Amino acid sequence: MRMAGSIMAMQGQAAQWLASTRAALAASGHGFTPEDQAAFAASAAAHPQPEPADVGDPAALEAEAREVARQAMEAEYPEGGFAPDDPRLAPIEGVTMAMAALAAKAVGWSKDPADTARAARCLGLDADVYERAAAAWSERVRRDVVLAAFYGQLYAQA
Fold it and tell me: Which of 11, 36, 52, 154 is 20–30 Å from 17 (CA)?
């Protein structure tokens, strides 16, 4: 029951963080314009699913999934959501987790560098900075199931 309450708190926290991030982007002259949104929608229509990937050994993949599930059940979820000063939420090269989620949702499955560059521009970032930060966020989230749960809330609501 405690985990469910924490996840609900993270849902609200994600909504607030995304709203404040969008407001800050707009105040700085950035953000996702209707033209950007239309371009991302067109790209999403062209790339509705990920490219096929070699998932490797199915038994190893299943074992990894079981391990993640075990970690998720044993993890300590922050009651009331994440504290604002939680070091796991520290920006990477100036990119917050909310910014990373907004850009990731916009780019979707596209591998087109133009989509990544557009997302970076919407965030007011250089594409190389965004790509490094996105890769670092991906690694940070991959290693922490609680952080992954919060990122999932951000991504879903982006």
Answer: 36
Q: Which of 84, 121, 128 is nearest to 103 (CA)?
A: 121
pLDDT digits (tens, 9 = 90+) for 61-115: 888 889 988 888 898 999 899 998 999 999 999 999 999 999 999 999 899 999 9
Cβ contact 103:119 at 8 Å: yes
Distance CA 86, CA 13 (A): 13
- 3 state SS for 71-133: HHHHCCCCCCCCCCCCHHHCCECCECHHHHHHHHHHHCCCCCHHHHHHHHHHCCCCHHHHHHH
Amino acid (one-letter) located at 18: L
Cα 76 to Cα 16: distance, rounded to the nearest angstrom: 22
In whole angstroms, give the CA distance from residue 88 to residue 83: 10
User: CA nearest 59: which of 71, 49, 67, 51?
Assistant: 67
Task: Estimate to the nearest angstrom the gap between the alpha carbon of 148 and the chain centroid.
Answer: 9
